[in-house]
Amino acid sequence: MMAANAAAEQxxxxxxxxxxxxxGKKLLITGKGRCNVTNFSDENELISQVIRNPKxxxxxxxxxxxxxAYAFFEECGVPLKIERGNRVFPESDRAVDIxxxxxxxxxxxxxxxxxxxxxxxxxxxxxxxxESGKYTCDSLIIATGGISYPATGSRGDxxxxxxxxxxxxxxxxxxxxxxxxxxxxxxxxxxxxxKNIQLTIINKAGKEIFSQFGExxxxxxxxxxxxxxxxxxxxEDNDFSCRAMxxxxxxxxxETLDKRICRDFEAFTNRAFRNALGKLLPQKIIPQIINxxxxxxxxxxxxxxxxQRRNLVxxxxxxxxxxxxxxxxxxxxxxxxxxxxxxxxxxxxxSRIVPNLYFAGEILDVDALTGGYNLQIAxxxxxxxxxxxxxxx
Length: 393
Known about the structure:
Layout: H1 2-9, E1 15-18, E2 38-39, H2 43-48, E3 50-52, H3 58-63, H4 66-75, E4 80-83, E5 87-90, H5 95-108, E6 112-115, E7 118-122, E8 126-130, E9 134-137, E10 140-142, H6 157-164, E11 169-175, E12 179-181, E13 193-202, E14 208-218, E15 222-224, H7 226-232, E16 242-247, H8 254-267, H9 286-293, H10 306-317, E17 319-326, E18 334-339, E19 344-345, E20 350-351, E21 357-359, E22 367-368, H11 373-390
Parallel strand pairs: 1-6, 10-21
Antiparallel strand pairs: 2-5, 3-22, 4-5, 7-8, 8-9, 11-18, 12-15, 12-17, 13-14, 13-16, 14-15, 16-17, 19-20
Helix pairs in contact: 1-11, 8-10, 9-10
């Protein structure tokens, strides 16, 4: 939609072909239906959050950055707000308002919208054959997304078409996904959200590959939440099995935490161990902490030895979850992999293989962390493709 509007604003006659019955189907579910529109950051910060091929996006972000995106939607009549971590949302908390802003622009710019699914494309000149009709054009932009959330229409059609036209496709894999547990301790804590914790991922070789402060969530199958989704983008498929190490009290070093526990134990001196941790830890995690530190749950706290207490401190600072694999594409927010950026001119988004053919968005082998960055990639590459595609007309 961004590409179509950009091309139309340059004077091109534009047809947008959408296989879904509605526009922006995937956009409507972003941010849990609120739509994390972008991240209110400069180009350097945007680049720093891109996992694969960040340098490829310099031109796109320079041409249309997060501040431009913010202004674009407000000019479309959608008031925005900035939340924690510079995440931008519509004030209404309704993703449909962002989609409707695009639709309004398409109507204003007289973009023709057609509901069809393209299955083959001939080149020189371009002839597109779909399930409902045939279409010709001087310039073509392919912005069909990746494979994540296939229920929204992301089936990988664009990758197959690009490959048939001679482009290299970097193998696709799910990114920004929950991580599945090897075992069953997470199910007992399902629904528990942890804030202000430090999550570290250690691969099977013992190497630390991710460590950040923030929020996470236990699920029936493993772990999820912002930190976990970000961590998943650093994990290759061959990194499993790996371990998630959770520091439940990162603001306290072990000595300070030990003193805090001593104060709690003094206050609950005659209580059973299982009833003496409520001020320190969420109730749902206490049984797992007890199991891991091997202190009898019914032992009176005044009977707990210094060695046992030190072990408790260690477990709280190193709560371990063994992981087996990533979730699949059905739960992935974005797709890692796609059209190889070596085949694309980053200054224009034009194919280096097929003249007057452009690519934009998630179909490309670029992906970023959570926080509005992936949508910004879509806007920036889409706008650059639209502007340059229109120059051929």
